[in-house]
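Sorry, I am new here, but would you mind making up a protein's amino acid sequence and the tokens describing how it folds?
***
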Amino acid sequence: MGSHARWRFRRFAVSGFLSGALLSAAGCSSTTREISLYKQGQVVVSLRSSAKTGTGPAPRYEHPATLSSEQVGKILAAVGIEEFSFFKWRDESVLLAAEDVPQLAPRLTEGLRKAGADQWVYFSVRNVPKALTFGAVRFSDGIAFVKDGKLNLVFDNIGYVENVDTLPSKMDPRDAKTSENVRLTAKAPEVRGGLPALVPGDRWLGRERTNWLVFDLSPAAATPPEPQPVAATPAVPPVMAPPPAPAAAPADPAERLRRLKDLRDKGLITADEYEKKRQEILKGL
């Protein structure tokens, strides 16, 4: 992420006022209840729920106790930023600094484990980037919840840089008006995530959301498929060498003597060679 980038997905006061007016006109209102879980150093984690009156069922969430800090850490480390400039989307690196993830992951995991069916988890993290001076801080915050087997991360401030501490938002980032020039993205192949799909008529997902990522928590998404066993190739029996040919039976001595004499008569062997070989044949009788 560029050291001087200032990204923020806060709604304007006017839009917040209009949202409140519309909710009131619809005959329902809500207030946010908050239970602090952790506040130390640069990390804050709390549980939030909505005390809602009026029509419509309250959202219900699923927060599995089996979700590990390692899983959450991999997901947080995969959250990236893209910015639309010069007619194309450009990668702006990851959202959370390397030192942020190990601080936030276990606390966020604890929050998800403790959250009830009507609660979501608020989190924030801030640090001082090395490239910035004069006490400037980088601040990111948002909410997390599990629904339909997927971890949802919805950000309010996204790597926002300023010279004073940013106060945590009390409004739901799902109601925020998001930027058309900045969007979140999942950057790591070991996690399966991306922007949520549009749901026509939904309060939050009825329009495109760029501050919202959804990560699949199913075992198939977290664990690479096991290699399928390869059918064994039938063993080919070794080719047996043919048995050695039986030794030729010794020729008849008379025949051998005749052949020997024929060689001498034709001058192919000397008289001495003839006599020596003839004696060998005779000894073999």
Notes: The two ends are 105 Å apart (CA to CA). Residues 219 and 225 are 10 Å apart (CA to CA). The chain has six helices and 13 strands. The chain has two domains: 7-19+27-222, 253-283.
